[in-house]
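Anyone? Bumping this.
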Amino acid sequence: GEDVEQSLFLSVREGDSSVINCTYTDSSSTYLYWYKQEPGAGLQLLTYIFSNMDMKQDQRLTVLLNKKDKHLSLRIADTQTGDSAIYFCAESPFSGGYNKLIFGAGTRLAVHP
Amino acid sequence: EAQVTQNPRYLITVTGKKLTVTCSQNMNHEYMSWYRQDPGLGLRQIYYSMNVEVTDKGDVPEGYKVSRKEKRNFPLILESPSPNQTSLYFCASNQGDTGELFFGEGSRLTVL
C-alpha cells in the first residue's frame, strides 16, 4: 500500500543547512509536498514539487526528487531558530486525487545556537 | 481572512459520551477532510467530503461519523468515544485542483 517514511528527529546548529529526507512508495503520485507544523498550530504547505521535476528552489528551500529511488529531500539553507518545527512529507497517490494525501510521521527539526 | 476554524480546541470527555467537533471554512472550498495526528504515525485521514452531501471514508474511519449539509461546515461526530480515540484532530479544506490543504489549528481530544 501507500507509505511515506521519514526520520523522526534532526538537530542542527543555527546557520547550518538542514536536510530532511523522505521516501515514498506510490510512483503514480503527481505531486509531492512538504508541510510545516509550528508548535500548537495546524500544518501549512511549505513547498511542493511536480513529479516530472528533479529539483525546485524557493529562496532558502531546495527540494530534490529522485523518482527512481522514490526519495524526496528538503534542504533549508542558513537554518534559523524560526525554522524549528515538524516537517511532513506527503504524496498524493493517483488513486486518491488531491483529497487523500498520505503523510509521513513528520521530522522534528530542532535548531540550536 | 481565509481560515479553517475548529471547535473545541481542547476537550476531555469520558468513554461513551457522544461529542461533536465542528469545522468551518470561509474559502468556499469544495473539499474538506478530517485527519488525526498521533505520535510516530503522522496524519491519517478519517473521512473526506467532495461536496455537499458527498462523503467517503479515509484510512481510519471506524468510530467516527461526518456530515456535509452545507459547503462551509464539516463536523466530526464521535457517537461513543473510546480511549483509543484520544488524539489531535485536524480539519482541512482544499479546492481540489491541488494538494494544498488548509488546516485548522487542531482539536486535542482526551477520552478517559
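Late reply, but here is one note on the structure posted above: The two ends of chain B are 36 Å apart (CA to CA).
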